[in-house]
Amino acid sequence: METFCEAVQFYLKHLEDSVYPVMTEEQFAVKLFPMYRYFVTVWLRNNSPEVKLGVIKSLRPMLSLLLPSDDMREQVYDYIPLLLAEYQGSLEALFVTQVLRQLLEASVTTSTPIPQMQLHTIFTELHVQVCAKAPAQQQYSGQNLMEIVHCFIALARSYPRELMKFFFSQMETSKEAVRVGTLSLIRAVVGAEEPRMNIKAIYLAIRVVKNMLSDSRSKVRMAILRIIGQLALSGYQDRIKGWGLKYVSVQLTLSTYKLTNRRDSFYQRDLEEKMVHKVTMDTVRIITSSVSGMTNEFWVRLLCYIMETDYMEALTPICISLTNLAERQLHGNDGGPSLTGKSRHVDLPAPQKLLARLLVLMSSPYKGEGRGIAMLNLLRTLSQSIAPSMADMWEVEIPLLVQYLEEHTEFTWNQKAWEDKLIRFLRNSLKKTRGSNWSLCLSKELNNQIESFDSPSLEKGFLYRALGFTLAMGLEADKVEVLLLELLYKTDYSNDFDREGVILCFGLCARGQVKTVLNVLHDFEERIQESEQSWQMGAWRKDHPWRREAVKSALMVMYSCVASYCHPQMLPPHVDSPITSKIIHHYSSSCQDVCLKMAFMKSIGQVTSALSRVQGLENFQFAQKTTLTGIVMGIIKAEPTDHLVSPVRTMAMDTLSHLSKLKPFYSMEENSELMDISIHSVISLQPPGEANESIKVLYANALNTLAQLMEGLMQRQLDPKGLQEMVHLLEKWILSEKEWEREKAMNLHLHLMQVYVQSVGVCIPLKLGQFGSLVGLIVPCTCDPHRRTRIAAIEVLSSLLDLHASQTCSPWGASKEKAFARCKEDLGGSDLENVFCATSSIAKKLCENIGAVDLQHDKASVTWISTFLRMRVKELEDKVAEILGAVLTHLQVVANLEVRRLLIEGILLLAHHHQETVLTVLLRQPLPMESHLTEVWLAVAENLPFARAMLHGLMGRLQARFTPRVNATSKADIWRLAAVDPLMTLCTIRLLIETMDKDDKLPDLFPDLIYTLLLQLSGSHGPEASSPVLKTWRLVHTGTLPEEINLQRITIKSMQLLFQRVSSEGLVRALQEQGVWGLLENSSTFLEGVGLLARLCVQSVEGSRQRLSELVLRGMASDILSCRISSTAVCVELMSNPILYQEKLLKPAVLMLDKGVDHEAEAVRVLSLRALGNMALGAPKQVKRYRKLLLERCLCSLRESTSTSVVSEGMAALTKILAELREGDVGSSFNPISERCRAFFDNESELLRSKAFVLFGKLAKVVWIAKKHFFKVEVRKAWVPLLLHCEDPCSDAAAACTATMFQCLHFWGWKALEGSCARSAASAEEMTAFQNTMCSILTQKKPAVLQDFLLETITYVRSNLSRIRIAACNLAGIIMKQMSACYLKQLDLPALRNSLQELQLDSDPGVRRAALETLKVLDNCSQHSLLASPEGTS
Q1: Which terminus has fewer CB within 10 Å in the chain: N or C?
Q2: DSSP per-residue codes, 717-785
Q3: Are the C-beta atoms of residues 1176 and 1195 closer than 8 Å to each other?
């Protein structure tokens, strides 16, 4: 049929060319209509989808022949309901709609209306498909909707009133989908292409839309906005004036409000609101570009929107729209009011207000789709209306700004450069308005906008900057003061961003208004009345309660900012007062926390920097310099010297650097003091760890700032004296024990040395003594264990040599330079042998060609040295180390005995007057001890009083590690606290003890020496043994040390020599026979050896007991763990001896042991408890006096579940203590001791079980009358464990248990039971007989107790100990044999049998046998109980 119709159409088209025209179009229609009718009425109802589809596709070509016929057209309309019915079937809706569209469009073109009765059905069927979701099987739903739209357009052309009435009825429903669909159709009708829709349809459509303006749902609002935009696009601009523009304005405001006050939990709603806003913006753009004669009200609304909105994303399209409107009005395209026109209801914004708003927003030009260019174009367009005087300048400047933004993107532009351009634009603009109040009005508007922006933000930061520049150009100072005061009052000083913004604003304002700014600050300070009460009241703003310190901090920086920005010629008259004096006042009257300190130093830094920039101040004297210096030095001193937590000290040193450049200059003494304080503040800091990056940065900044400060201060005295003074300040740090202090001091020395060498004008040569002292200080550091310190030391030495060579005109040769370079490389390596060799090589090169070396010259030189030392030895404190180093060097190579004797005498002379320095130098010599050094110590040993003094000094060096670290207060302290090799110290002590006069028994030194050596030995075994005693100093030994030279062997050998000197052969023999030395040498037996040694000493060395006791008590208070453990171990033996009580040292000893019981180290707790228990041996009569403390501490130890040793020692101590107490003495502690003791009867530890049984037996002896009843109950509770543990696998525990059990028999009160087995060590047969007797008696007297015993015994069949399981089975059998039938019936026999049967699977055959025997007993008892029962009898 489709092909046939196409052939007919072809035929009709070429009808004039036909030779034999037979049929016309009307005739074809008449012939075709029956077929159309049959297709629609019959075939279209077929159930086959293929048939339906074929029929519906054939209808369109048939209709193209039928519809042109007037007669056929009306007949075809009659079958429209049949077509509409197909929408309800499975046929694709698109094909039905296409047929329907063809019919409706034919109705329009032929002006043949469709019957009225069919219209509502057509409206409804088509409208439902628009508003409802298409079925899933519909493949062409999108195309179908397009066809439906065309259908409605055709209907609107023919039946506008009926259609709009239908739309109105549909809009009355509240369903959003229906309303949105209807509005979409109206939009399509409004936007129909040519021919245009008649005005009546448009009028009716607008009436329908107006009824929906109150709907607040997002999709409905978007649909209405799109209709308004479509009306404007379609040429119906007059129809939207009034209601349409008002609706767009309202939606613009409403969507902006919702977006700026959105909530995170309503994401979907926010997304819809964004869509509404976008559609609104599109509508505004359409309106402003197409609507002529725009109302002034809409223009004002858009301008006000820019001024008030917080939703920045909308600014760009609004600005573009306003620019379009303005350009059209300027060019006369609109007939509406001009830009300067005014509405009766809404005023246009002031020019300054608009400029301020746009200028601040332009500071972030790429936000909101590039709002900067849009706003610049708007300003350019409105230039004549904003400020006619600026218009010409803006015509030139604004295109340049636009060009800059177009050449960049948000990723390539520079914020600072752009803000500078805007500030320049603002400054040039304000210059055009000089003589008027324009800048002041602009300042007010800028000030009003401060609260419109968030903190922090780029816009608000620029706003503060622009406000400062604008205020600086104000002409009326009184009005500027009002604005500045208002700004001070409304600032939130707790907000860092706002505080910094106000400070910058005041500084920029001071460029042109310095007096005004200072007056405002003074007025502000007076009004808030600097008192605690007024600060805390919150003053002028209740929403910003000021914090006193925050305001003071801001005021300090404001004053310094004024100094930094004001005109250079205005600074000198105001810098001392009020600027600096106010800064000092605010800091001094504050709490001076970290923030205040930083603000104070930032302020002083800005003031001093500003002064340094002023030209022509050669005669200016900064009056406040001394006061400021004192405050800054106090800040540095107050900083912690061991850690770094803030940049305060760095800022303080930087401030001192600035102050040092101003007059009056510091004196040499002040310079030295500043350098000393700064050096101590930084060099003492411990380097930061690897994890904290921020602390690393602070640390590096502190070091750099210290170097800059030292460099600046040294510039004032660039001569040898100044250099030597600087090195003198670094000396104690170069000699420090801590490697990081030595490294930092050496690096600083190197930096300052390089500055000194490179400085121009250094022409005063170093004197030989000065050069020697500088070199002598540095040379030892070339052997430092820290590589970086060695490298820095050799670089300093190289600089000194270069300086010396340049000043003496004696440069080194090329060969020496190369050799020196090789030495440098060796010092940078890790091989200690190479380091030592390199140092020696450098020393030789320094000493070459100094003078003759024959014997006569040597004797003469040595004689001179000896004479000089005798005459001036007391005055050589600073030179002792240098002299001693030189003497030892010569002593090593001199062969003549006379010369050697004189040199050694010189060393001894130095040692008499400067013992600590000489000791440090001698002890820092390498091991093994070389012959010349041995010779020196042998000479010391010959002088007995001096040797004893040196022994005291050597002991002090060893004891230093066991005492708290102290700071040096003198030169002697520096040397005394310097790091030395403990092994060298021990070797020296051993040498002196071995070589001193044998007749001297050293009675006064003996206890101190023994105790010191014992502590040294304990340190080698204790927790500190993994690191050297003084790890900050390691010596470069000349070779591998012999095996016998180690800390333990040297210490033990020294102790052996000391005991031999006591001349007690019995003691020496006892020490050897009992293996004390072997015990001390082994870490696992060390404490046993200490105890044995102490016991023998207390017994044999009577004169030293008191001193040894005092030393032990002092050691027990040490923070060093090894010292405390060893001292407590000695105290264990002292407590078992009357010596402490006799010497009145018992009380402090008990108090120290009381603290030791709570120590975190287990060994200290164990030894403290043991010592407290030994009081019962050494001072038994004092046990009663200290019973409360003793019982409490021992009882606490029983509650510790983590340490078996502590619990065991606590029970052992209690056993000894209870032996000296009576029942009344124990008091309330008796009950918990008994209960805790029983808790350990079944413990897995054999030791704890054994100690618990012994302690329980001791409690049984203590019981008298008061505790008898309580202990009877305790015995009953303990009886089953006691019976069973007599078979304990641990023999000690079994013996103790058996003895305790028989000690407790009398608490049962049965003579027959006591007489059954009186021996504590009974055999198995005797024990079984005893158990039978006991059960027999219990059956007669306490059968219920026997039943309880059985139940408790059964629980032990699950014991981890097989012997206990066997004993439990045997005891259960004995009890069941003795139990009466009535109590047997009360037992859960099946459960009992199950427990015993489970033991048949036990891995121990003995357990299985015992369980089997008990099962047999159980079966016999069960049978007897059944026979005895009434049921069994019957």
Answers
A1: C
A2: G-SHHHHHHHHHHHHHHHT-SSHHHHHHHHHHHHHHHHHHHHSTT--SPPPHHHHHHHHHHHGGGGG-S
A3: no
Tally Cβ neighbours within 10 Å of residue 1057: 17
Centroid of chain to Cα 356: 43
Q: How confident is the model at residue 1213 (pLDDT cuts 50, 70, 90)?
A: very high
Taking the C-alpha atoms of residue 311 and residue 253, their distance in angstroms, rounded to an integer, is 10
Which tokens hold the place of 801? 């040599």
What amino acid is encoded at 634 in this protein?
A: G
DSSP state at residue 43: G
Higher pLDDT, 166 or 324: 166
Over residues 28-64, the pLDDT tens digits come to 778 888 888 888 888 888 778 888 888 888 888 888 8
On whether the CB atoms of residues 184 and 223 are closer than 8 A, the answer is: yes
Q: Which residues contact 187 (CB under 8 A, 6 or more apart)?
A: 223, 226, 227, 230
- Separation of alpha carbons 508 and 1320, rounded Å: 102
CB 917 within 8 A of CB 884: yes
**Cβ count near 877 (within 10 Å):** 15
Phi, psi of 1225 (to 5 degrees): -70, -35
Give the three-state DSSP class for 481. helix
Look at the alpha carbons of 576, 579, 581, 587 in this order and tell me if their dihedral is positive or negative. Answer: negative
The average pLDDT across 676-683 equals: 89
Q: Would the CA dihedral through 1171, 1176, 1177, 1181 be positive or negative? A: positive
Helix or strand holding residue 1234 (H, E): helix 1230-1239
- Structure tokens of 734? 């170069």
Angle separating helix axes 458-472 and 351-361, nearest 10 degrees: 130
CA dihedral 1209, 1213, 1215, 1216 (to 10 degrees): 140
Tell me the C-alpha distance between 1345 and 1347, whole Å.
Answer: 5
Other beta carbons within 10 angstroms of residue 164's beta carbon come to: 21
Task: Let me know the angle formed at the C-alpha of 884 by 882 and 890, rounded to the nearest 5 degrees.
Answer: 105
**Cα gap 637→652, rounded to integer Å:** 10
Name every residue whose Cβ is closer than 8 Å to that of residue 100 and which is 6 or more positions away in sequence.
80, 83, 84, 122, 126, 151
Question: Who contacts 1061 (Cβ-Cβ below 8 Å, separation ≥6)?
Answer: 993, 998, 1000, 1001, 1002
Structure tokens, 1044? 């016998």
- The residues near 417 (Cβ < 8 Å, ≥ 6 apart) are none
Which letter does DSSP use for residue 437 in this model? S
Confidence category of residue 387, pLDDT binned at 50, 70, 90: confident
Best CA proximity match to 380, nearest among 396, 400, 395 = 395
Is residue 807 within 8 A of residue 766, CB to CB? The reply is yes
CA angle 662, 668, 674 (to 5 degrees): 70
Length of the chain: 1434
Rg over alpha carbons for the chain, rounded to the nearest Å, is 54
Q: Please give the DSSP secondary-structure letter assigned to residue 930.
A: P
Amino acid identity for residue 196 in this structure: R
Contact of 365 with 412, CB cutoff 8 Å:
no
Query: What stretches of 132-175 show up as alpha helix (H) in DSSP?
Result: 141-158, 160-171
> Is there a contact between 1097 and 1111 (Cβ–Cβ < 8 Å)?
no
Cα–Cα distances (Å) from 966 to 679, 915, 963, 969, 977, in that order, read 19, 19, 9, 9, 8
| Whether the bond into 349 is cis, omega within 30 of 0 | no
Nearest to 923, CA basis, from 897, 948, 955, 945: 955
